[in-house]
Write a structure and sequence with these properties.
This is Peptidase M61. Residues 42-223 form the Peptidase M61 N-terminal domain. The protein contains 17 helices and 30 strands. With 631 residues, the protein is α+β, with helices and mostly antiparallel strands. The chain has 3 domains: 2-222, Immunoglobulin-like, CATH 2.60.40.3650; 329-505 and 615-631, Neutral Protease, domain 2 (Orthogonal Bundle); 514-603, Pdz3 Domain, CATH 2.30.42. The strands form 8 sheets. Strands 4-7-2-1-11-14-13 form a 7-stranded mixed sheet. A 5-stranded mixed sheet has the order 16-17-18-20-19. The protein has a 4-stranded antiparallel sheet with strand order 5-6-3-10, with no helix packed on it. The longest helix has 19 residues, at 249-267. The protein is globular, with a radius of gyration of 27 Å. Bound molecules: zinc ion. Zinc ion is lined by residues 297, 325, 329, 359, 362.
């Protein structure tokens, strides 16, 4: 009796210092050992406190002096530091008597809990990342970020639920409590559903086999529009959050379905998944909205962030490009990956040498299947490939891809990461052409990846240092030489060598650009030292040249408006409103002096190279091209 009273007193104190610490205090003697009990975690979405939700994590009993609890510093697929611990606060850990323990915080993501054999559970607040992307605080790439808003929760669970260093393989239970009128999409299995007394709140209890599954299964709760449909034997669940209801799941569904039908066809026998979730968050035009557009892959789902203002047709094309890329990640890294990926360390990860494959080949597939399956014309595909060559040349073309990959968090490698989507895809293309040439059209990049996925699959990692020699053994000396010279080595690829095999060539052409942007490459780049934008060291368009702009010029004002890095983004959409006859005046800083440039916008053109078919290509070239492109 006394003990109970004691407990009650403590409970009041507990409630006092961390309002949401729920559940009873457990009896230490009845608590199973940590390795015998699923880790009980919970997130309560019904009581958002100052833009934060309360998260609780309750493991079994430890048999150690101290334990380490962390939130991920890095999550898989992002290749950058996220520091999810830095978005939490007020972490408090309790012993079995309900007394707070003296927890020591180390860095942004680590807490050391003393007296671990008496440690019962801990709780903390999580703040979201979406609405602070435009502040000075460093935030993760939006599709890996978190959102806490009254009508929408983006639950990238790696941003909410942490792990004990010694218990990453332990089973998890996750109780998610939310208002009953919320829609909820989640791929983790629900083991039970309970209601509060007046049925206004619902708690779903999800099960995860280990911490990895917590991080691999994002969820979305709130005001969602959900469409479900079949692609062959695969169930697709498309969840859309469009705050102003500009886009609907049913409108996007058709595009996704025809795209994924084509992807399934392209993948042939390659095993995929029974269910695939697409979470699409459409960002409104607001200072507090996320701006890292794109997507992040998971084994059976993807989180996509796009601007809501996009026109339907453009959104559909972007969804095709982006979601097809994420879905193709089922091939690699999900079915073909190294030990670095398989035993991923969320705190101090090591990186594989083979981003050319994980990201590059995936991006190549996402472009190639569209022409191969007849969703896109050959010329559209050539233009895309050509664009990738041009963008790749803006980065270091002599950097070893394997070296960049292994050191991707550090400079100068980190700033060349974007090349995995450019040159990485071109590497995939070159190997595809070689494979088809050597095998008389019998084998290809996708057939090689299928062979590798049969050899390895989700549960068996390959040895990072052996992959290139292994692929060489499985294929042809020419493929091995290519990988050694242009992927591990630092020799730039001569693309003409590959185009000539399939009767293609790059010819001089002039194309129209926007005043400040060519395809997706702006003529401007930020300069952190001056806090302003400057013209890149590249071939400028005819209009900029006629105005007298020189590479390296720093923009001060345009038509009287002062532009810094804070507002330079507004200049591009504004310039799109100008006609060729619009007169503009631009003041640039050139060295020590300010120069005023003025004139008509005109029609900005650039001299470029265009990838086209050779008219008198040989029969051999045309045959290989047809095998390559399927048309
Ligand atoms: Zn990717």
């Amino acid at each position: 009796m006394r003990r109970l009273l004691y407990l009650l007193t403590i409970l009041v104190i507990v409630v006092g210092c961390s309002p949401k610490m729920g559940g009873n205090i457990e009896n230490k003697n009845q608590e199973p050992a940590a390795k015998q009990k699923p880790i009980a975690s919970s997130i309560d979405l019904t009581e958002v406190n100052n833009d934060r939700v309360w998260v609780q994590v309750d493991p079994g009993k430890f048999d150690a002096d101290s334990v380490i609890f962390r939130l991920p510093r890095v999550v898989q697929g992002t290749y950058s530091v996220s520091d999810f611990g830095s978005f939490t606060d007020s972490l408090v850990a309790y012993n079995y008597d309900g007394e707070p323990l003296n927890v020591k915080k180390e860095g942004a993501n680590t807490w050391i809990i003393p007296d671990a054999s008496n440690f019962d559970k801990l709780g903390y607040y999580v703040n979201d990342t979406f609405d602070i992307e435009n502040t000075d605080k460093k935030t993760p790439f939006s599709p890996s970020g978190t959102n806490i808003k009254e009508d929408n929760f983006v639950l990238n669970l790696h941003g909410f639920v942490g792990y004990f260093e010694t218990l990453q393989d332990q089973e998890y239970r996750l109780d998610l409590t939310a208002p009953a009128d919320f829609k909820r999409t989640a791929a983790l299995p629900v083991v039970s559903t309970t209601y509060n007394s007046d049925s206004t709140e619902v708690t779903n209890t999800y099960a995860a086999e280990r911490y990895f599954q917590i991080t691999d299964n994002p969820m979305m709760y709130g005001k969602l529009d959900v469409a479900e449909f079949q692609v062959d034997d695969m169930q697709i669940v498309l969840s859309v959050y469009s705050p102003n209801e500009k886009h609907s799941a049913s409108a996007i569904q058709k595009t996704i379905k025809s795209m994924m039908d084509a992807q399934k066809d392209y993948l042939g026998e390659l095993k995929t998944t029974d269910r695939y979730d697409i979470y699409l968050y459409l960002a409104p035009r607001a200072k507090t909205a996320p701006t890292g557009f794109g997507a992040l892959e998971h084994h059976t789902s993807t989180v996509v962030v796009m601007p809501e203002a996009m026109q339907a047709q453009r959104l559909n094309q972007s969804m095709t490009d982006v979601v097809s890329h994420e879905f193709f990640h089922i091939v690699t890294p999900l079915n073909v990956h190294s030990e670095d990926v398989h035993y991923f360390d969320y705190n101090a990860p090591s990186f594989s040498k083979h981003l050319w494959m994980y990201e590059g080949v995936t991006e190549y597939f996402a472009s190639h299947f569209q022409v191969y399956e007849g969703l896109q014309s050959k010329q559209a595909f050539y233009n895309k490939i050509n664009g990738k060559i041009e963008s790749s040349l803006n980065m270091n073309d002599s950097m070893s891809f394997t070296k960049m990959s292994e050191n991707v968090l550090e400079e100068p490698y980190a700033s060349n990461y974007y090349n995995v989507y450019q040159k990485g895809a071109l590497i995939g293309m070159c190997i595809d052409i070689l494979m088809r040439e050597e095998s008389n059209g019998q084998r290809s990049m996708i057939s090689l990846m299928t062979e590798l996925s049969q050899k390895y699959g989700t549960e068996k990692p390959f040895t990072d240092d052996k992959l290139i020699s292994e692929i060489t053994e499985m294929t042809y000396p020419s493929v091995g030489d290519f990988l050694k010279t242009h992927v591990a080595g630092n020799t730039p690829i001569n693309y003409s060598d590959f185009f000539s095999k399939v009767g293609l060539q790059r010819v001089k052409d002039s194309t129209k650009t926007s005043l400040f942007i060519k395809d997706r490459t702006p003529f401007l780049k930020g300069n952190d030292e001056t806090g302003r934008a400057e013209f890149r060291d590249m071939e400028l368009n005819s209009s900029l040249k006629e105005l007298g702009v020189q590479p390296g010029d720093i923009i001060k004002t345009v038509n009287g408006t002062d532009y810094t890095l804070q507002n330079i983004r507004q200049l591009i959409p504004q310039s799109m409103q100008w006609s060729p006859d619009t007169e503009i005046e631009m003041v640039v800083i050139r060295g020590e002096e300010e120069v005023t440039l003025s004139g008509k916008v005109g029609t900005p053109m650039v001299e470029t190279l265009k990838l086209t078919e050779v008219e008198d290509a040989s029969e051999e070239q045309v045959t290989l091209r047809k095998q390559w492109l399927g048309q």
